[in-house]
Design brief:
- This is Glycosyltransferase family 1 protein.
- It is a single chain.
- By secondary structure, this protein is α/β, with parallel strands linked by helices.
- The chain has 20 helices and twelve strands.
- The strands form two sheets. A seven-stranded parallel β-sheet has the order 3-2-1-4-5-6-7. Strands 9-8-10-11-12 form a five-stranded parallel β-sheet, sandwiched between helices.
- The N and C termini lie far apart (56 Å).
Length: 407
C-alpha cells in the first residue's frame, strides 16, 4: 500500500471511530461502510454472582474462555470472555466475538461495548496489553484501564508470551534462543513491542498474570496463571508407542519461535531411515487437534523458548509422550507452586536424535512416563488451580479457594 493509501486508511478509521456509523458511512465508499446488521449485541452481563469477570480481547489458544470457565468454578463468581476475530481465526470457542473489522472501525459497537462492560462487570482481565474497546480510546489500553478504574471496575492484565518476552533477555539466557540468529528487523520489532507493553503495565500498576512460568523473569512480581484445558476433550483410550514406527507430531504455531528449523532435519532423517513417522501440521482448526494428538505417539512442543504451553498440556492430557526444551527455572517453579514434577521430557535440539532412538528401544519406560501426563493436567491445568490463582484478584475468600483446591 502506498503512503497515501495508508494515510487514507488511517483517516477512515479515525473518522469511523469518532462519529456514529450512520454519519461516517456518508463519507466512505460502500465497501468500507459498517452496516447495523454487522454489529453483534453487547455481551450479556452475568446475573446473580457477587463478582462478574470479563476477559478480553484475544482468546489466544482459547485461553480467554478457558480462564473464564475456571473463574466460574469459584463460589459467587461468573465470567465471560470476548474475542475479536481476524480472517485467519482458528475458530476457538468464545462467549462473545466480533469481527476485527467491526472491532476497529465501528463507533456504535465501541460505545455499546463500553456501557455493557462498565455496567455489567465488576472485574476485567485484559489480555496481551491489547485494547478491548477497539479504537474508542484511540486504541490505547492504558486509557481504557484508567476509564474502567474511574468507574469502579477492578482491572488486571494477563500476558500470553510474545507480548512481554524480551528477546534481548532471552538471547542472553539460552543458547537455543530463537532471537540469536534471527532477522534483526524481526527481533527489533518484538523487542520494541515488549518494551512498550512493559511501559504500559508500569504506568498502570495493576496485577499482572503470565501464562507460562518463564515470563516471570521478564515481569518480576507477576503471577503464573496456568493455561486451562478440558481433560476429557483430549483423553485418548489407546496408549502410545505401540506402532512399529512411532508417529511424531510437531504442530508449531510459529516455526521460527518454536525452533522448528533446529529439529526438523533430525526428524526428516529419522523418518527417511524408517525409525519414525514424522508429521508436521500448521494452522489446523482447533476442532481437529484432539484427533491429531490421539493419532500421535510423541508430540514435540518447542525447542527454542525453554517453556511449555497449551500444546504440551493438550498432548499430556491425551497421554502422549511430550518432548520440549524446558528451562530449569520453569520446572522448579512448577514444582514449587504445585508440588508436582512436570511430565514434559526436557530435550534440547542437540539431544533429540538420541532421545527419539532411545524411545524406540525402550518403549515401556517411555510409555510409563507418558502415563503421568493426564494426572498432572487434572491437578494443574483443568481450571481449579487457575481459579485459586485468580481468587485474590476477584476478592474470593481463602476458604472458598481451599474448598475448590480440595475437590
Amino acid at each position: 500500500m502506498s503512503r497515501f493509501g495508508r494515510y487514507a486508511a488511517l483517516g477512515a478509521r479515525v473518522l469511523r471511530s469518532r462519529v456514529p456509523d450512520r454519519f461516517a458511512n456518508v463519507f466512505l465508499p460502500a465497501d468500507q461502510r459498517i452496516r447495523a446488521s454487522e454489529l453483534p449485541k453487547p455481551p450479556s452481563p452475568p446475573g446473580g454472582g457477587a463478582c462478574s469477570l470479563y476477559i478480553a480481547p484475544v482468546n489466544f489458544a482459547g485461553q480467554g474462555r478457558a480462564w473464564a470457565r475456571a473463574a466460574g468454578m469459584l463460589a459467587g463468581v461468573e465470567a465471560r470472555n470476548m474475542q475479536y476475530r481476524a480472517e485467519s481465526d482458528l475458530a476457538f470457542d468464545a462467549d462473545y466475538s466480533v469481527s476485527e473489522r467491526v472491532f476497529w472501525s465501528s463507533h456504535d459497537w465501541a460505545a455499546r461495548q463500553k456501557r455493557a462492560v462498565r455496567n455489567g462487570f465488576s472485574h476485567v482481565l485484559v489480555e496481551a496489553e491489547r485494547a478491548i474497546f477497539g479504537s474508542a480510546f484511540s486504541g490505547y489500553p492504558e486509557r481504557e484501564v484508567a476509564w474502567l478504574r474511574r468507574a469502579g471496575v477492578h482491572v488486571a492484565a494477563v500476558s500470553h508470551g510474545t507480548d512481554l518476552r524480551l528477546p534481548s533477555r532471552h538471547a542472553q539466557l539460552d543458547e537455543w534462543s530463537p532471537f540469536r540468529d534471527a532477522p534483526s528487523s524481526w527481533v527489533a520489532g518484538l523487542e520494541s513491542r515488549a518494551r512498550r507493553n512493559h511501559e504500559i503495565l508500569d504506568a498502570l500498576d495493576i496485577p499482572v498474570f503470565v501464562s507460562t512460568p518463564e515470563l516471570l523473569l521478564d515481569r518480576p512480581g507477576s503471577t503464573w496463571l496456568p493455561v486451562v484445558v478440558d481433560p476429557e476433550r483430549w483423553r485418548a483410550d489407546a496408549p502410545p508407542l505401540e506402532r512399529a514406527r512411532p508417529r511424531v507430531l510437531h504442530a508449531p504455531t510459529n516455526p521460527l519461535v518454536k525452533g522448528t528449523a533446529l529439529i526438523e532435519p533430525v526428524l526428516q532423517k529419522l523418518d527417511a531411515e524408517g525409525v519414525i513417522d514424522y508429521v508436521r501440521v500448521q494452522r489446523v482448526p482447533a476442532a481437529q487437534m484432539p484427533q491429531l494428538y490421539r493419532d500421535a505417539d510423541i508430540v514435540l512442543e518447542q525447542f527454542a523458548l525453554g517453556m511449555y504451553s497449551v500444546t504440551s498440556v493438550e498432548a499430556m492430557a491425551a497421554g502422549r509422550l511430550v518432548f520440549a526444551h524446558i528451562h530449569d527455572q520453569v520446572r522448579d517453579h512448577v514444582a514449587s507452586v504445585t508440588g508436582r514434577d512436570l511430565p514434559v521430557q526436557p530435550v534440547t535440539p542437540a539431544q533429540l536424535e538420541e532421545r527419539v532412538r532411545d524411545v524406540v528401544s525402550r518403549r515401556e519406560h517411555y510409555r510409563a512416563l507418558a502415563a503421568n501426563g493426564p494426572a498432572f493436567v487434572n491437578a494443574v491445568h483443568d481450571g481449579r488451580f487457575s481459579a485459586t490463582v485468580l481468587a485474590p484478584f476477584l476478592g474470593v475468600s481463602d476458604s472458598a479457594r481451599e474448598s475448590l483446591s480440595e475437590n
